[in-house]
Amino acid sequence: MYFEKIAMFLFLFGGSKVHPCLKKNYPCSAMGNQYYSLHINCGGKEAIFNNSKYEADLEVRGASMFYSGQNWAFSSTGNFMDNDLEADVYIDANTSTLHNVSATDSELYKTARVSPLSLTYYGLCLGNGNYTVRLHFAEIVYTNDQTFDSLGKRIFDVYIQGKLVLKDFNIENEAGGPGNPIVKNFTAEVTSHTLKIHFYWAGKGTTGIPQRGVYGPLISAISVDPNFKPPSEHGKKIYVRVVAGAVVGAVFIVFLVLIILWRKGWLGGKISADKDRTMLCPVKSRHEDRREDGLLRGENPLRPCLLCIFENLRISLRRTTSHSTSLLQTGLFTLRQIKAATMNFDAANRIGEGGFGSVYKGLLSDGTVIAVKQLSAKSKQGNKEFVNEIGMISGLQHPNLVKLYGCCVEGNQLILIYEYMENNCLSRALFGRDAICKLKLDWPTRQKICLGIARGLAYLHEESRLKIVHRDIKTSNVLLDKEFNAKISDFGLAKLYEDDNTHISTRVAGTIGYMAPEYAMRGYLTNKADVYSFGVVALEIVSGKSNTNYRPKEEFVYLLDWAYVLQERGSLLELVDPELGSEYSSEEAMVMLNVALLCTNASPTLRPTMSQVVSMLEGRTAVQDLLSDPGFSAINPKFKAIRNHFWQNPSQTQSMSTDGPYSDDGSLSNIDKEENNILLRVNSVISDK
């Protein structure tokens, strides 16, 4: 099944006919292209305005219509309330004299698109970033000649990216009379390659002047321009070829390598844990340097496979372009390079320590600062997780995901090389034991970090062609660069997730205290497990306290328990980190806290998606009313018993992977036995209660 999913990833990268940038699956006629501007003459023919070509928009189909162009689309809904006396007209021509506009520019205002209820324009395949949206209006139906036709009043609302930007908008009043053009400017952020502009009639204004059925939103033209410098056309073509060639080639090799490793028994399932560890980190002997059949005894079997992966990636990139120097750095490093970069793993360069081993700061000969993750022989991360992390993260590129430069596999060494993060991990910044480690994070920085994590997860779950469940979202797996941009790291436990699967049944892997209950108890895995983990992390960011180490009172096991109690009491703001003092927005804090509690709902179906979380954190969507959550209240004996058990066994709060060895004779593994013992003890506690 695991390799079938890898094969699906290969298929998606190589032959998907649905453009990845279309958030809502609108058809995109120019496959592979991204656009950085949009100009539409709504309801009119093609026109030139301010040296920009405005595309024609003349489609008229009826009460419910949808039209899709090359990089934009629109939908219109509703019948005009005119007693069907006349056929509905969805494009109006000017009946009033245009003022304050040249003959050339008047082409934008001679006609306009109207709708009786709802009119939505979509910008498709836009490059992500901030844009200036200009909405051109002119009231061309009503007049100012003191006749009955001048008494009409058109009122409607305008939303951009789901956010209300104009309420009870009256073109005539804003422009100073009929026939006067007016342009409204807005800034909009495109994060999923789609821009949505919605015009909506809420039942206000007149509906029968100059005759029945004259009302509803009216728009003359739309322009969208970037607030950043777009990549050149040449650069875009190079980039597309680089990604298409390199990723498809690399993923194909990864797929083949994983099959080989699996058949050899190097990915678990055919060998015991001790044998896997021995193969991973062979014990040195006095005869180790003796060569047999041209190979050095003790050489790690992963090395030729990984060399093949990265060499294929490097060759693909070289064939495509000689300018992608940053991408060409990705590959297989020698142990000599890593030792030189870290001064032979000098303790002074050690910047982190974990169950996997140590992390060192390094400096390559070309001046690139790197982070070197050296897996310890005692690490629970084995061959499968090591290859899994390389395969997953090398196929993903996002500002909120850590960048993998490559790896080193020599002898008994398994080393990953990442981009260097100046501010270490979020866990250290929040919970550091001393003033050097613990950073003073102000409120805007905490918001920025929380939103960055949400965007990274939204990309993994919904925007990337390779849909991934991370499975181990926690503060120590969120890194911070010098600008405090959050980057998700550690993909060793990540799982591929297919849209047509309701869930994945798998052995539990992750960190107690961050795992969703349905996953921790039954191995029921969906992307909502990551949503739950994000909710816990968001609580920690706001409170500055660790979910697993903070115990306000004996009856509450985790920070999350205390949060639900405070939420029921209506005093949720007591959770805000006292170190912030009064230097924070109570409204923004309530948004983050409510989003966190929404994400940690006991029912996975009631948790929001990560794209919804991003929208709520950005203020584009109101936070949903929190549903009552008895599943996580302090009075629920089942969850309380489980939490108490894990609290009383702190060794289990370490990250654990249970994808590992199991007995082929049908007997339970140690992990399965321990899980059963836990459930038996939990049921016993519940029965006693």
From TrEMBL:
<keyword id="KW-0472">Membrane</keyword>
<dbReference type="Pfam" id="PF11721">
    <property type="entry name" value="Malectin"/>
</dbReference>
<keyword id="KW-0808">Transferase</keyword>
<keyword id="KW-0675">Receptor</keyword>
<feature type="signal peptide">
    <location>
        <begin position="1"/>
        <end position="18"/>
    </location>
</feature>
<feature type="domain" description="Protein kinase">
    <location>
        <begin position="345"/>
        <end position="627"/>
    </location>
</feature>
<feature type="region of interest" description="Disordered">
    <location>
        <begin position="650"/>
        <end position="670"/>
    </location>
</feature>
<dbReference type="Pfam" id="PF07714">
    <property type="entry name" value="PK_Tyr_Ser-Thr"/>
</dbReference>
<keyword id="KW-0433">Leucine-rich repeat</keyword>
<feature type="transmembrane region" description="Helical">
    <location>
        <begin position="238"/>
        <end position="262"/>
    </location>
</feature>
<protein>
    <recommendedName>
        <fullName>non-specific serine/threonine protein kinase</fullName>
        <ecNumber>2.7.11.1</ecNumber>
    </recommendedName>
</protein>
<keyword id="KW-0547">Nucleotide-binding</keyword>
<dbReference type="InterPro" id="IPR051824">
    <property type="entry name" value="LRR_Rcpt-Like_S/T_Kinase"/>
</dbReference>
<keyword id="KW-0677">Repeat</keyword>
<dbReference type="InterPro" id="IPR000719">
    <property type="entry name" value="Prot_kinase_dom"/>
</dbReference>
<dbReference type="InterPro" id="IPR011009">
    <property type="entry name" value="Kinase-like_dom_sf"/>
</dbReference>
<keyword id="KW-0732">Signal</keyword>
<keyword id="KW-0325">Glycoprotein</keyword>
<keyword id="KW-0067">ATP-binding</keyword>
<keyword id="KW-0812">Transmembrane</keyword>
<dbReference type="InterPro" id="IPR017441">
    <property type="entry name" value="Protein_kinase_ATP_BS"/>
</dbReference>
<keyword id="KW-0597">Phosphoprotein</keyword>
<dbReference type="InterPro" id="IPR021720">
    <property type="entry name" value="Malectin_dom"/>
</dbReference>
<dbReference type="GO" id="GO:0016020">
    <property type="term" value="C:membrane"/>
</dbReference>
<keyword id="KW-1133">Transmembrane helix</keyword>
<keyword id="KW-0723">Serine/threonine-protein kinase</keyword>
<dbReference type="GO" id="GO:0005524">
    <property type="term" value="F:ATP binding"/>
</dbReference>
<feature type="binding site">
    <location>
        <position position="373"/>
    </location>
    <ligand>
        <name>ATP</name>
    </ligand>
</feature>
<dbReference type="InterPro" id="IPR008271">
    <property type="entry name" value="Ser/Thr_kinase_AS"/>
</dbReference>
<dbReference type="InterPro" id="IPR001245">
    <property type="entry name" value="Ser-Thr/Tyr_kinase_cat_dom"/>
</dbReference>
<keyword id="KW-0418">Kinase</keyword>
<dbReference type="GO" id="GO:0004674">
    <property type="term" value="F:protein serine/threonine kinase activity"/>
</dbReference>
